[in-house]
């Protein structure tokens, strides 16, 4: 099979590998779509210091694959099933849940595979990712795609859509809410689509015209260009405009960017008793949030058991996340897919197999 490997320092290469075989309880999936995620890009640009490279090569000499095959946003068709597999069969269309785990501990049984002490994320060293023709996955990681959900939907379900769906569920969002969403990469844009579908009024904060345009297309009630606010000599005006459009301040906030400013601004916009959820780290929390009784919660992807609820929601509200895809590449050009995504002048970038 063909697969992309990451070589560090923004270098990557498509290589040939032997076709994998499913063992007992495992499923071989022929990948149809694999999305490039912001977290893949962190791995892609990471430059290993020369002294550390030798150490890593020794540490991971038996890890397969090494260097890693990235990708955790994969969907495809079941090609073959291993011994004992009963819930999927060849020909089924599936999205692949991207944390592999023991399947037996308390957290696994609850569906929180990512909390298992033995968990491994697809695309990390030692756990093959989805930028490959084929991928073997445990049976319990196969989320069968309902009719009406495309392979592109399946790739979103594997990461961006599930992240935003779980986060917004924690806020208990409804038509009573005004929400400020920060960061308009694919996760933030999924947040815009879903917050609208849940009935909230949405202000979307981000940068780059292409992403601000997508937020408008997905129905955001107000779109704010963070760079324009920063460059503005009269920032009071934009804050005045926001207050005018959202007179009661915001009851809810969703932070997806990991930027310190974004966290600060989001908390400033929240009203008393406001509640916020963040899926991105790296931002300290100012101490005045105490006086406002603000609730802030972290959220990391979605438990496996929430899949049916998410699939039903996407079908019911015709979320049409495919509109977010701006660039498509075949696996032979996966290197270009990463270069395009790293330049950030894009919506969602995918690799697809026709
Ligand atoms: Zn992702
Ligand atoms: Zn476990």
UniProtKB/TrEMBL annotation:
Its cofactor is Zn(2+). Residues 75-86 have a biased composition (Low complexity). Pfam families: ADH_N, ADH_zinc_N. The keyword Zinc applies. It comes from Candidatus Desantisbacteria bacterium CG_4_10_14_0_8_um_filter_48_22. This is Enoyl reductase (ER) domain-containing protein. Keywords: Metal-binding, Oxidoreductase, Zinc. Residues 8-351 form the Enoyl reductase (ER) domain. Belongs to the zinc-containing alcohol dehydrogenase family.
């Amino acid at each position: 099979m063909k697969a992309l490997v990451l070589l560090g320092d923004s270098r990557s290469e498509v290589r040939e590998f032997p076709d994998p075989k499913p063992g007992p309880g495992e499923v071989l999936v022929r990948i149809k779509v694999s999305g490039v995620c912001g977290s893949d890009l962190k791995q892609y640009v990471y430059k290993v210091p020369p002294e550390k490279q030798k150490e890593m090569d020794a540490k991971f000499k038996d890890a397969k694959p090494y260097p890693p095959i990235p990708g955790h946003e994969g969907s495809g068709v079941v090609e073959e099933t291993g011994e004992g597999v009963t819930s999927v069969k060849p020909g089924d269309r599936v999205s692949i849940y991207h944390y592999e785990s023991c399947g037996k501990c308390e957290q696994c049984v609850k569906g929180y595979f990512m909390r298992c002490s033995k968990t491994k994320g697809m695309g990390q060293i030692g756990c093959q990712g989805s930028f490959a023709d084929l991928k073997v996955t445990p049976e319990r990681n196969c989320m069968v795609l309902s009719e009406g959900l495309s392979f592109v939907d399946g790739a979103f379900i594997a990461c961006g859509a599930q992240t935003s769906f779980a986060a917004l569920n924690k806020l208990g969002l409804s038509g009573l809410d005004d929400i400020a969403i920060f960061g308009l990469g694919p996760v933030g844009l999924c947040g815009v689509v879903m917050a609208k579908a849940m009935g909230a009024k949405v202000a979307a904060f981000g940068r780059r015209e292409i992403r601000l345009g997508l937020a408008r297309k997905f129905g955001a009630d107000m779109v704010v260009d963070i760079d324009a606010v920063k460059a503005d000599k009269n920032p009071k005006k934009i804050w005045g405009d926001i207050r005018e459009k959202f007179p009661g301040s915001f009851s809810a906030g969703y932070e997806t960017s990991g930027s310190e400013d974004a966290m600060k601004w989001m908390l400033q916009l929240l009203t008393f008793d406001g509640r916020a959820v963040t899926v991105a780290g790296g931002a300290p929390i100012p101490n005045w949030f105490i006086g406002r009784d603000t609730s802030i919660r972290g959220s990391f992807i979605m438990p496996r058991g929430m899949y049916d609820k998410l699939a039903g929601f996407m079908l019911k509200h015709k979320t049409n996340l495919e509109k977010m895809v701006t660039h498509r590449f075949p696996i032979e050009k996966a290197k270009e897919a990463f270069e395009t995504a790293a330049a950030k002048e894009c919506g969602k970038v995918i690799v697809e197999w026709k």
